[in-house]
Amino acid sequence: MRPVIFSKMDFSHSSLFGYIEDLQELTIIERPVRRSLKTPEEIERLTVDEELSDIERAVYLLSSGQDIQGTSVVANLPVLMRQNPAETLRRVLPKIREVLHVAGVEMQLTAAVSFLTVLQEESVSIHTYSHSFLHIILQNLEHRDAGVSNAWLETLLAVIEALPKETVRHEILNPLVSKAQLSQTLQSRLVSCKIMGKVANKFEAHIVKREVLPLVKSLCQDVEYEVRACMCRQLEHVARGIGTELTKTVVLPELVELARDEGSSVRLAAFETLVNLLDMFDADDRSQTVLPLVKSFCEKSFKTDESILVSLSFHLGKLCNGLYGIFTPEQHLRFLEFYKKLSTLGLQQENGHNDNQLHLQTLEQEKKYISVRKNCAYNFPAMIVFVDPKNFHLELYSIFFCLCHDPEVPVRYTMAISFFEVAKLLNSDVYTIHKELVTLLQDESLEVLDALVGHLPEILELMTNRGENNGSESKLLSIPDLIPALTTAEQRAATSLKWRTHEKLLQKYACLPHIISSDQIYYRFLHRMLTIILTNNVLPVQKAAARTLCVYLRYNRKQEQRHEVIQKLIAQLGQGKSYWNRLRFLDTCEFIMELFSKSFFCKYFFLPVLELTHDPVANVRMKLCCLLPKVKSTLKIPTDKHLLQQLELCIRKLLCQEKDKDVLTIVKRTVLELDRMEISVDAFQKRFYENDLLDQEKERQEHLLLEMEQLEKEKQKNEGRSTNINDKMFEKKRRDSKTSSVLAKSINLSISGGSSGTSAGKEEKKSKLVRSQSFSTQVLHPKYSNIDKCPKKNSLFCLLSVQCFQKSSLSKLPLCVSDDSFRTHAVGNSGSAAFPSSSSRNLFNSADQKSNGNKESQTRRMSM
Q1: CA nearest neighbour of 97 among 126, 128, 113, 74
Q2: How far apart are CA 609 and CA 611, in angstroms?
Q3: 585: nearest Cα among 532, 533, 630, 632
Q4: pLDDT at position 586 over 70
Q5: d(CA 771, CA 212)
Q6: What CA–CA distance (Å, rounded) separates 776 from 567?
Q7: SS3 track for 693-758
Q8: Residue 218: alpha-carbon gap to chain centroid
């Protein structure tokens, strides 16, 4: 051991004196905090008699209490209205009206919210509300504080929707005529503009034309640009209220005039209102009036007025699609180029287009350019519709690439949000944006990843399915780089502090069994989920990983892998050393009961769950007791009678041996619940029909997975057998080729040396050789060469046709397939199409063997 060194610590008198001074400074700092506490006198004034009722206490606090107490009473007004509306209206509301005249900002804002809550909860009738509350709202509408005035205005606009027309006309519209005059304050005229837009939808068109439109025109001509801009934004609501004809004759000329206003905010409001009203204008108005205005806006945005760039980029998608029918090809191309220019705005210096840097960008300009590119990313799906998805790769792919690789996070975040819409629009061409999906999955910002994960299952399904429709190669090529991107995204989320993003990602990864193969999930994702359950410290993340693991296990197609995962779950979770792991095992069992059939749970997890009744930790036993009703619901009588006995035995032990009071209370409550439960039987019952039907479907799918696995093994065996047969046939052909070469040499020797042979003997030998070779290479007629392609339903017919052909044309060849094998393969439900081909191969091999035997005998005779 190393000796402990105290050389750095100084206990001299000076150092101790310094420590005392530091402590004194700390006490000096604390003194003002202690003095800020309430004195006994203040506490006495804040104390209220507990015997007072709620109404009396409210009246007392509003009359003689402090401001904070009065604010609490105003905030509690909706509760008082629900409990005793009559007394509240008679005693409390008049006090609130008196207090609001001299109240501060906090109480005013609280009162506006409380009045709106009373309206939304419908504690009183609308007639009573208008009689009691409306006058208070109108009195405080022109408060000197802008925030308070806006709060009361929002309450009034909500009230107008619920009030009857006559009340609105007499209480609101008639006083509005005087409030909108130039002699009134700016705040009063701004409030009048917003009320105009709300009232226009309340009345018929002729009333609006007679009483509202004159006020609207006067406010559009106001001397203050704030009033003109505010009224311009309300013209959309006015136009919806008066209809198409009056909009064309009254509203459109006002918008054209406001679009040429000297104030930039007024021009911007006019542009946005024009875009929002495009559906109310006919083709002539769009082509003759709206389109020239829009073109002038686009031209001025870069030259003289950059203030409208952000709004223009935000509404560009809606604008292009709204004017699509009247665009000429040249105008179509011009607006597309304008969008491309906006999409890369502010990136020219990075790309080397502005090396001189004559105009240095300020911070405000950079923020503006980022907002423009963000709006372009928002409008990207609309621009795909504008250019037609078929032209995406030619017209917009370069812009899509730039936006996905933008240096600013908000731009990439917006692209990640709209990625699903882009994928849907591209349809079968979705494979062209696969690289960008991988890029966004590997983005350095977790905000981008979180935005992309929201629709990740749908995106991956589009990537694989529609890419498959276009060609299977694209699907196969998309998998290798997609899986590393998914694993990298999960690891980055796991190492960050944003556990909600990690939880969301794990939940969405449950879609992978429908996207990639079972082996890829097993080796790349399944064990990772188990590791997260064992090592992660965040409970929602662990539960998300447990459920996703159960989904992977549900769709795993290899029994050995399933057994391995089940054994690990039981050994590392159910029998783990940490009680936290054993708790997660119970959570996993809940997911298994949800996703798997009852028989599956009873076969693998029923007894391991019951073993936790002896767990030394009380929390584990408590959680198990809460889970026991679900465990019992998985049993079927009489099949699981022995498991039911085990369950009852464990419950008896808990009742007799449990020492923890909390656990014993839960055990008793669970026993009562278990006694009331009815166990389902093997046969269907009416009360459990839907659950039994669902369980039967799960069990059928599990058996289907086992059958598919068995069929794959048989297929692999058949492929291996066919490979061996092909190797043997290749070896025989090689030997035959050697024999034919020897035969040719012997024929040449016999021709040169045999002078006694006649020409007829030579022709006979040649004809025998040709017949032997043709018989060895053409056993079957070409008519029967498609036997392997017979459908499954006609497999028996195919086999019988092969058998008849063998009997007819190859009667001398021995059959190597028995009748039992024919019957077995013909009756089989699945894989029957593969077996006839194998049987035909056996017949062909027997024919080849016979032909080869004939060749060898013929060769020996000729050589002799």
Answers
A1: 74
A2: 5
A3: 533
A4: yes
A5: 107
A6: 56
A7: HHHHHHHHHHHHHHHHHHHHHHHHHHHHHHHHHHHHHHHHHHHHHHHHHHHHHHHHHHHHHCCCCC
A8: 50
The top-scoring range by mean pLDDT among 262-271, 403-412, 628-637 is 403-412
**More confident position, 361 or 714:** 714
The CA distance from 289 to 281, in Å, is 10
Taking the C-alpha atoms of residue 303 and residue 301, their distance in angstroms, rounded to an integer, is 6
Rounded distance, CA 490 to CA 453, Å?
Answer: 11
Mark residue 722 as left, alpha or beta (left: phi above 0; alpha: psi -120 to 50; beta: remaining): alpha
pLDDT in the model for residue 851: 46
Beta bridge partners of 766: none
> First and final CA of the chain: distance in angstroms?
100
Hey, is 811 helix, strand or coil? coil
For residue 265, give both structure tokens: 């905010």
CB atoms inside a 10 Å sphere around CB 735: 12
**Residue 353 has what DSSP assignment?**
S
DSSP annotation of 524 reads I
Q: Where are the alpha helices (DSSP H) in 605-688?
A: 606-610, 618-633, 641-657, 661-676
CA 428 to CA 218: how far, in whole Å?
A: 55
Q: What's residue 730's pLDDT? A: 56
Residue pair 272/264 in contact by the 8 Å Cβ criterion: no
Query: How far is residue 350's CA from residue 370's CA, in Å, rounded to a whole number?
Result: 14
Q: What is the pLDDT of residues 84-112, one digit of tens each?
A: 999 999 999 999 999 998 888 999 999 99
> Given the structure tokens 């849907």, which residue do they identify?
424
Number of neighbouring beta carbons within 10 Å of residue 221: 14
DSSP 101-149: TT--HHHHHHHHHHHHHHHHHT-S-HHHHHHHTHHHHHHTTT-SSHHHH
Phi, psi angles (nearest 5°) of residue 680: -75, 150
CA distance readout (Å), 21 to 28, 534, 755: 11, 51, 136
Q: Read off the amino acid at residue 828.
A: G
